[in-house]
Amino acid sequence: MARQTQEQVEAEIAGLPALSLEALRERWRTLYGNPAPRSLRRGLLIRAVAYQLQVKAFGGLSAATKKKLREIAVAAREGRFDAAVIGPRVKPGTRLIRVWQGETHSVLVLEDGFEWNGTRYRSLSLVAKTITGTNWNGWTFFGVKRPGSPSEGRDGLGRFNGPVAAPDGSRVWPRSRRGRQSGAAPAVLAGGADA
Prior knowledge:
Blueprint: H1 6-14, H2 21-32, H3 42-58, H4 63-77, H5 83-86, E1 95-100, E2 103-110, E3 113-116, E4 119-121, H6 124-132, H7 138-141, H8 177-182
Antiparallel strand pairs: 1-2, 2-3, 3-4
Helix pairs in contact: 1-3, 2-3
């Protein structure tokens, strides 16, 4: 099947609201390969079919984005969801500096975006693209590292999680003198990883 143009996809999406519920369910089956959930309301069904049409025509989320979304879902399900994991990585007022092709660029982090050369931007990636002329992940371009991940025993703010309390309420740090002397097994950190 030939790849659809943007205009063809837009026209097909525009026609979705006119389809019957049965036709929408059939379109879902064609795109997703399985029947649509019976509980799915018409509006969401239209949006999901429209999304999948765009994925088929132009590609979907990157593997890294899918992985991040899965991590967020697992964290939320386990009750350890921390908005800081997906929120801003730097505080407003922070100045990010990068030398690019011999020129130093300074970006001020704002509450609702970034400021570079007196112009406000909604994302750091837009600043990086303006500086370089090519698409960049803004966080990578400016060398901003993520705080420690739960797998490293850190919460979304980069703070270290202590070992989970034992049934008697005690906490033994496996790398402490007491932990080594007692031969305690490595404690499981709150983030779910071994120490």
